[in-house]
Design goal:
The protein is of the alpha/beta class. It contains 9 helices and 16 strands. Helix 2 packs across helix 3 and helix 3 packs parallel to helix 4. The radius of gyration is 20 Å and the shape is globular.
């Protein structure tokens, strides 16, 4: 079984931060991986210069430059039309389906099917994070129009993909305001998230992954229950086209001091489901990745503690998990631990690296997986399997 990753289709880079000058890079790399052979470090070509230790002021400069570029006429017109539709129905209550522990996701013969059917694909976005781009001091506290417009445009593009994807995953940080900080803003951002993402075509299931901004850096019982009231289970599983997909709440591995019971319940559930389906095709979605490009990297404030990551990586590898898709760092990154590929997707809302806002298309084949990142205005209209 070969796994192929193409990163990314179109790249926006910073060549002169002082002049704040943008150029476009158009390189791709293709990483071919055979599970029987552990890839060497040299086999992966780094795709971007990552910004990890940037201070807040410099981050704001990057965000300002990234998001004050002029969008295409198509982008602006698409957003204008959909904002008008949302305004017309602003008084309507958004119907929202909450996740259950065992979900039934997919279209036609793929849905809830444990046997391989035929090739299919799905779409990943991450960190829509309404309210993150500008700090409250620089905008109206209830203004997250830029983030909403990007999500509106992405959903319009996804709705018009041919054929349609089996599902769309949002890999955490649906909104920016943590429930423990400002409950009022958190509610407003959640409502706007639901309004925007409810425009996803009814035939495309939406999968929401829990991020740290959705429940807090140090979640408690109240924040977990609030998330579940809005979105349903924060960890669950589903079968689609012969592949078992698992959704995890990664914050339980980052800091579970106030929710040890919830964390233990997820861990027991995960242990049981991995044991039951060991050796089958399994893919995991979570918000915080186990690492970025190398397991040896220095532990950062935003990362999961190394000994916990190592323990979980061993557990997933033993069960035969092939990929973990995540977000959190607002950049694109790929890396391997033994036969397991860790894929981090750039933010839909506010990217912090060289790649602009976009989405990832993941193609599932009987013996391999291909995933490609597309900037928003380079999303294809048709997908060939």
């Amino acid at each position: 079984m070969n796994y192929v990753s193409e990163e990314p289709a179109g790249r926006r880079g910073w060549f002169n931060i002082l002049l704040i000058k943008k150029n476009y890079l158009h390189h791709n790399y293709c990483h071919v991986y055979t599970p029987t052979v552990q890839p060497s470090t040299a086999s992966t070509i780094p795709f971007c210069h990552r910004i990890h230790s940037v201070n807040d002021a410099f981050r704001r400069v990057l965000l300002f430059c990234t998001h004050n570029n002029s969008f295409s006429d198509e982008f602006q017109e698409t957003c204008r039309i959909h904002r008008a539709k949302m305004t017309e129905s602003i008084e309507q209550t958004v119907k929202w389906r909450r996740h259950e522990v065992e979900e039934k996701i997919g279209l036609d013969q793929f849905k809830n099917n444990q046997l391989w059917t035929e090739n299919f694909y799905f779409v990943i976005v991450s960190d829509s994070q309404f309210g993150y781009i500008k700090p409250p001091s620089e905008r109206d506290s209830k203004d997250w129009k830029i983030e909403m417009d990007k999500a509106i445009f992405a959903i319009d593009k996804i709705n018009n993909l041919s054929p349609r994807p089996q599902f769309l995953v949002v890999c955490g940080d649906l909104v920016n305001e943590m429930p423990c900080n400002e409950a009022g803003l958190n509610e407003l951002q959640i409502n706007d998230f639901k309004k925007v993402f409810s425009n996803l075509h009814p035939s495309i299931p939406l999968i929401c992954v829990c991020g740290n901004h959705d429940i807090g850096d140090i979640p408690d019982e109240n924040s977990i229950n609030k998330y579940r009231d809005h979105f349903g289970q924060d960890y669950f599983s589903f079968w689609c086209g012969g592949v078992l997909f698992l959704v995890l709440n990664s914050q339980y591995y980052k800091n579970s001091c106030n929710v040890e019971k919830f964390a233990a319940e997820q861990d027991q559930w995960l242990t049981e489901i991995l044991s039951k389906h060991e050796g089958q095709r399994i893919i995991v979605f979570q918000h915080i990745p186990w690492f970025l490009s190398k397991t040896e990297e220095e532990i950062q404030k935003k990362s999961i503690e190394k000994n916990i990551s190592h323990k979980m990586l061993e557990k997933l590898c033993k069960a035969g998990v092939s990929h973990v898709f995540s977000g959190h760092h607002h950049i694109n990154s790929t890396g391997f631990y033994k036969n397991l590929e860790i894929v981090v997707t750039c933010a839909l809302g506010a990217p912090l690296g060289e790649d602009p806002s976009g989405l990832r298309i993941v193609k599932m084949y009987e013996n391999n997986v291909i995933h490609t990142y597309y900037p928003l205005e380079q999303i294809p209209s048709s997908i060939k399997n």
